[in-house]
Write a structure and sequence with these properties.
This protein is an alpha/beta fold. The protein has a single domain, classed as Aldolase class I (TIM Barrel, Alpha-Beta Barrel), CATH 3.20.20. It is built from eight helices and eight strands, in the order E-H-E-H-E-H-E-H-E-E-H-E-H-E-H-H. The chain has helices at 16-21, 46-52, 73-79, 93-105, 152-165, 182-188, 197-200, 205-212; strands at residues 3-6, 29-34, 60-65, 83-87, 109-114, 132-136, 170-174, 192-195. It has an eight-stranded parallel β-sheet with strand order 1-8-7-6-5-4-3-2. It binds D-xylitol-5-phosphate and zinc ion. Zinc ion binds at residues 7, 30, 32, 63, 174, 194.
Length: 214
């Protein structure tokens, strides 16, 4: 069963509670945290995660697009994150490893993320220690960009690694996932799909979420 994690980056920030209610048939709520340094945009931070926590029973899937994510990993858990994913490009291998441990010490799920230019092998040092691997199919920073089909071989390669080394780990794809692109992600082995604009621009949001499940 494919899980859907709608990105609230495409929600109306003046009506976040209402817009989170609109995705109640989804599996996770994807929260994009950006620091203006790791990516050229600033979005949601700790106070917003804390504020939305009581508005939904769905797990909060928090995608940290910040440098040295270990500095804030525990605080995002305390704010209400259930899953915290961190970019392998955002710090040294040792510090990312420590950041994963901080998330686990809070009893939450940890994951690593790879940008489009980062090879599949970059997840290998962490694969046995994470509950999620996220493959970006756009350059991180903005919603509404075009899906990068050329990332599918990487999704397939990471699916093979996961099957061999940590089958319980979820494989998530993020960026440009829409009715014309989601099938390629599923075929390549993804089991969680993030979708921002494709969900929030839909006339019928529950129907769109159902469609994306395949
Ligand atoms: C991009 C974010 C994505 C984004 C996806 O940096 O990580 O989660 O919100 O938006 P769409 O689905 O519109 O590409
Ligand atoms: Zn994201």
């Amino acid at each position: 069963m494919i899980k859907i994690s709608p990105s609230i980056l495409s929600a109306d920030f003046a009506n976040l509670e209402r817009d989170i209610r609109k995705i109640s048939t989804a599996d996770y709520v994807h929260v994009d945290v950006m620091d203006g340094v790791f990516v050229p945009n600033i979005s949601i931070g700790l106070p917003v995660v804390k504020a939305i926590r009581p508005t939904t029973d769905l797990p909060l899937d928090v995608h940290l697009m910040i440098v040295q994510p270990g500095r804030y990993a525990a605080q995002f858990c305390d704010a209400g994150a259930d899953i915290v994913t961190m970019h392998v490009e955002a710090d040294t291998e040792e510090n990312i490893r420590e950041a994963i441990q901080k998330v686990h010490a809070k009893g939450k799920r940890a994951g690593v993320v790879v940008k489009p230019g980062t090879p599949a092998e970059a997840v290998l040092p962490f694969i046995k220690d994470v509950e999620m691997i996220l493959v970006m199919t756009v350059e991180p920073g903005f919603g509404g960009q075009s899906f990068m089909t050329d990332q599918m071989p990487k999704v397939r390669a990471i699916r093979e690694y996961i099957n061999a080394q940590n089958p319980a780990c979820e494989l998530e794809v993020d960026g440009g996932v829409a009715p014309d692109t989601f099938r390629a992600c599923i075929d390549a082995g993804a089991d969680v799909l993030v979708a921002g604009s494709a969900v929030y621009q839909a006339e019928d949001i529950p129907a769109r979420i159902q469609l994306l499940r395949g």
